# Entry
Amino acid sequence: MAFVSLLAQEQSLELYEYLGAKEKRKIQTDITISLNPKEKMLQDAKKAFANGHRILKIKLGKDIAHAIDVTQALSQALPQAKLLIDANQAWSLKDALLYVETMQNRPLALIEQPVKAKELAALKKITQISHIPILADEAAFSLADVKHIITSRSADMINIKLMKCGGVTKAVEILEYARVKNVKCMLGSMLEGPISIGVAEHLAMAYSDVIEYVDLDSPLLYKKGFRL
Ligand SMILES: [Mg+2]
# Structure
């Protein structure tokens, strides 16, 4: 990140310009609603929505009855919110298919990594059946993983994280590939500090045609705010 920032500085460019963006733009991140009992998740989601967050990343676990219950309650309570469902590899193929079937009439934005990273055949099956786009996260680290997932149609979208793919140049390779293949991505993060989140923000500006969702909410957890 330091090196890429220096390359931009050498040309007297802002990082987003160096990465190909014409202008600085506002980036809208989602906000994570952590896995908890239903009432607590509802309460957290309503609070986030009231604070202006329209894109909610809902963390669900392996209790599929709870997952279905929470999703139905949230989509009923907050019809204007965009719900991104993250199962974090917790579901079996059977549970994932049950979830998809139950959610047929719910306008969910996506389902992230429903099954274990290694279970690509199951992921593909879910992608084939689901009307909701399926996002690969733990199944997609490298460009080779991404190419395999896209060419085998195992998922509709890819979650790219700087800490997962190995830095800015690796992320750019994946984003360039996704652009050519017309695959939409999420730009996510781990729990990260302001420098790497800032770099990711510049990437999101430069690839706004590819990056449909930005999941860079770790600064919301900082004790002190930061500015780029
Ligand atoms: Mg994830």
